[in-house]
Amino acid sequence: MSYVKQLIGMFFLVIVVCGGPFMLYTQKEEIVFEPGNIVVHTVYLIQQIAEGSLGTYYSGQTERSIAEDILPFAISSFELLFASVGVAVLASIIFGLLLQRFRIVRQFQKVLNLLATIPDFILIVVSIVGAVGFYKLTNIRIITLSPVSDAESTWFPITLLSIGPTIFLMKVVSLKYAQIGGEDYIKTALAKGMGIWHVLIHHVYKNIKPFLIADLKKTIAITVANLFIVEYLLNVVGLTRFIFSKDGGYEFNAAVMGLLGIILLSILVYLLIRLILYVIERAVVYK
Fold first, then answer.
1. What is the share, in percent, of the chain residues with pLDDT greater than 90?
2. Amino acid 198: pLDDT
C-alpha cells in the first residue's frame, strides 16, 4: 500500500513540476500566477488516458501521437541509462576494489579525483568539442550535432553519460576499500595464508557492498541528470525529447509522460542492477 501511495505522490509531483510554466508565467512584463491552469491540463490528461490515448505532441510542424512514440523513446533512454550505470558499477568494482592495490590504478584514480572537481556539464561539453576536433583531424565522425539528424550510434552517448557516475561510485568504493582494508579481520585473514583474491571477494566485497548499494541511487540520480544534457546535445531520440523539443512548443501531456517515463526507468535500472549484483554474488561470493 505504501508503494501505491508513493506512486500517486510521484505522479502529482510530476504534474506540479511539468505544470510550472502554465501556473507561473509573465504577461506584459507582469508575473502571473494561475494554479488553476494545472488543474485544467491535468483533467485533460486524465481524460486522454481514460480514452486510451496519451495525447499528442508536435515535432516541428508534425503532430505525433505520444502513445506511438513513447515505447521506442523509452527503449532508447533505457539503453543509455542501464549501460551507463552498468559501466559505473563494473568500473568501481574492478578498479576501486579488485585492482586497487596496483599503483597504476591508484594514479588513475587521482586523475579521476581531479576530474571530479569539474562539473559534469563541462566534461560533456569538452568531450563533444574533442570529438569535433577529432573529426577535423581524421575525418572520422563519431557524433552527429545536426539539429535535423538523430544520433547514429549509442556508444559515444553512453561513454559521456557514464563519466559522472563512474567517477562518483569509484571514489566511494575506493574510500571504503581503504577503510575496510585496514581492519583487523582482513589482516587476520591474510595472516592465515588466504589468497588476496579470496580476501577481496569473500571479505572486502561483502563489507563494501552495503555502501555500494546505498550509493547506487545517487549514481542513478547523477546519470539521469546528465541524461537530459546528453540526449539534447547529441540528438539522441529518447524520453527527454518529450520535455525539451528543439523545434516544437512545450506540451504538458508530453512533458508529464516523458518525466514519468524517466522516473520509472530509473527504478527499473536500480532493480535490475540489484538483481545482477545478487546473481553474481550468489555465483561467485557464496559458491
1. 20
2. 79
* Residue 2 pLDDT greater than 80, yes or no: no
Listed residue (48, 37, 34, 30) closest to 15, CA to CA = 37
Q: How confident is the model at residue 38 (pLDDT cuts 50, 70, 90)?
A: confident
Domain that includes residue 97, residue range: 76-285
Question: DSSP for 151-211?
Answer: -S-SHHHHHHHHHHHHHHHHHHHHHHHHHHHTSHHHHHHHHTT--HHHHIIIIIHHHHHHH
CATH number at residue 112: 1.10.3720.10
C-alpha cell at 131: 570529438
Closest listed residue to residue 122, CA positions, set 163, 166, 157: 163
CA dihedral sign of residues 94, 99, 104, 105: positive
**Distances in whole angstroms, Cα of residue 134 to Cα of each of 140, 141, 233:** 7, 8, 17
Instruction: List the grid coordinates of 51.
Output: 480514452
Residue the block writes with cell 527504478: 267
pTM: 0.85
Domain count, the chain: 2
